[in-house]
């Protein structure tokens, strides 16, 4: 038996690449919009993501691609 953590998300999760080479993790809900996180387990939320030009650019890229990463 493993001592690992199991993470279940109600909404699709995506890893988006930023222009500086880093990544953010995004949980996407068609009606409520995005939530951004620093980790894939969605523990460390980025609350002021709308102030970060890189994250906004990655979100625009995601939307313009038809909501597919």
Quick rundown:
The protein is of the alpha+beta class and 69 residues long. The chain is built from 1 helix and 3 strands, in the order βββα.
Order of strands, widest sheet = 1-2-3
Give the integer mean of the pLDDT values.
88
Q: Kindly, what is the distance between the CA atoms of the first and last residues, rounded to a whole number of angstroms? A: 33 Å
Order of helices and strands: EEEH
Strand fraction band?
Answer: 15-25%
* Low-pLDDT stretches: none
| SS field, number of helical segments | 1
What multimeric state do the chains show?
A: single chain
| Strand elements, count | 3
Largest sheet: 3 strands, antiparallel
- Return Rg in Å: 13 Å
Structural class by helix and strand composition:
alpha+beta
The total domain count is 1
Q: What percent of residues adopt helix (DSSP H or I)? A: 10-25%
User: What overall form do the CA principal axes indicate?
Assistant: globular
What's the helix and strand layout?
Elements: E1 13-17, E2 23-29, E3 33-37, H1 53-64
Antiparallel strand pairs: 1-2, 2-3
Give an overview in words.
This protein is of the alpha+beta class. It has one domain (13-64). Helices cover 17% and strands 25% of the residues. It contains 1 helix and 3 strands, in the order βββα. The protein has a 3-stranded antiparallel sheet. β1 and β2 form a beta hairpin. The protein is globular and about 40 Å long. The model has no long low-confidence stretch (mean pLDDT 88).
């Amino acid at each position: 038996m493993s001592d690992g953590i199991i993470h279940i998300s109600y909404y699709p999760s995506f890893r988006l690449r930023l222009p500086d080479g880093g990544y953010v993790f995004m949980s996407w809900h068609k009606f409520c919009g995005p939530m951004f996180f620093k980790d894939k387990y969605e523990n460390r939320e980025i609350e002021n993501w709308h102030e970060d030009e890189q994250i906004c650019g990655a979100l625009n890229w995601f939307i313009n691609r038809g909501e597919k990463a």
